[in-house]
Specification:
Blueprint (H helix, E strand, L loop, with lengths): L1 H27 L12 E6 L2 E13 L1 H4 E2 L5 H8 L6 E11 L4 E4 L15 H7 L9 E3 L5 H4 L15 E3 L2 H7 L2 H6 L2 H20 L15 E5 L8 E7 L2 E5 L7 H4 L6 E2 L5 H18 L2 E3 L9 E5 L5 E5 L10
Parallel strand pairs: 5-6, 6-7, 10-12
Antiparallel strand pairs: 1-2, 2-4, 3-11, 4-5, 8-9, 9-10, 13-14
């Protein structure tokens, strides 16, 4: 009898001691917060091509300073589309297209030339995605703003993609590398001209800065689509493989939440807002009609998705769902 009571008492004591020890160990196991994220890349399969979105980072803006609207409806549009109309987060991304024969990078992020410490991560994430910069054959630039071209050259002036030709429209190259045009620019704009000259220098010196004319054929499965307005020579690139199409649009849309629903709203960085608005409306109409997969350097990461009509003039963004294998149909 006494033996059974002892066993029960000992058992209860052991349980209580174990609970106390677990509580103490839990307190001792408290860890500091982590402020980093996993490497930011995301792959899809496009026919026989593999396309990897590579994040360069993000910035927050006051939408009333970033966005421009000539209709006077900006405030109502912000209240309609944003959870907090006082702030928007804008991503910056590039796209690595492996055709099986070529490795092509579309836009290269900031490279630390512009935007501060929350940007400039494209090269780190490219390596995390399993590639080296020297493996890139071609860099295609949508335009020469620093958040798209900065990543091709280090701040010390060395080429990052040592084996790649860098290609963009001739109109874009002529505009941003023109001393005459730069001299007429505003004080705020002159910094962009200075960065364009600096990052192009090592490629110009080596003969690997190769602008293309509208009639030039780049490669099988790649079509150049002129999109002037944001800049004079901006283009988009349409990739096609085994009947599947992906359009990388450059800076046609900066704030997805607002500009898909209200394509009439432009941004402060548009060189010609009226032309940019017209280009956006025509492109979105075509993408919907042809059901083309879309990606954009400033769309919410990982940037891939489709759009559908939403109302008389607006559109809705339908992002891809995360998949742990790079297949998309």
């Amino acid at each position: 009898m006494y033996k059974r009571q002892f066993i029960r008492l000992f058992g209860r004591s052991a349980i209580a001691f174990g609970a106390m020890l677990a509580t103490k160990m839990k307190a001792q196991a408290e860890a500091p917060y982590r402020y980093d994220q996993s490497p930011a890349f995301y792959r899809i399969k496009l026919g026989d091509f593999e396309v990897t979105a590579i994040h360069d980072g993000s910035l927050q803006f006051d939408p009333r300073q970033l966005l421009r609207d000539e209709t006077g409806e900006l405030s109502s549009a912000l209240n309609e589309t944003l959870v907090d109309p006082r702030v928007v987060t804008i991503s910056v991304s590039g796209f690595l297209v492996n055709t099986g024969k070529q490795l092509i990078l579309v836009d290269a992020g900031t490279g630390g030339w512009w935007g501060g410490p929350t940007l400039g991560k494209l090269l780190v994430n490219l390596r995390a995605a399993g590639y080296k910069p020297e493996e890139v054959d071609t860099v295609l630039l949508t335009h020469l703003h620093p958040d798209h071209v900065g990543g091709i050259t280090t701040l010390s002036g060395a080429s990052v993609f040592s084996n790649a030709d860098v290609r963009m429209s001739q109109i874009e190259s002529d505009f941003w590398l023109s001393a005459k045009v730069a001299a007429k620019a505003t004080e705020n704009e002159r910094g962009f001209f200075k960065i364009a000259r600096a990052v192009s220098a090592p490629y110009l010196a080596s003969g690997r800065w190769r602008p293309f004319a509208p009639s030039d054929r780049l490669s099988d499965g790649i079509e150049v689509v002129p999109l002037p307005g944001h800049t004079p020579g901006q283009v988009g690139y349409e990739f096609t493989s085994v009947g599947q199409r992906l359009f990388i649009m450059g800076d046609v849309v900066h704030v997805a939440e607002v500009q898909f629903k209200h394509p009439e709203i432009g941004v402060a960085f548009d060189g010609d807002q009226k032309t940019a608005v017209g280009q956006r409306e025509r492109l979105l109409k075509r993408l919907v009609a042809q059901n083309i997969l879309l990606a954009g350097p400033h769309l919410p990461f990982p940037t891939f998705g489709r759009i559908r009509k939403d109302g008389d003039r607006g559109y809705a963004w339908v992002p891809v769902s995360y998949a742990d294998t790079p297949f998309f149909k």
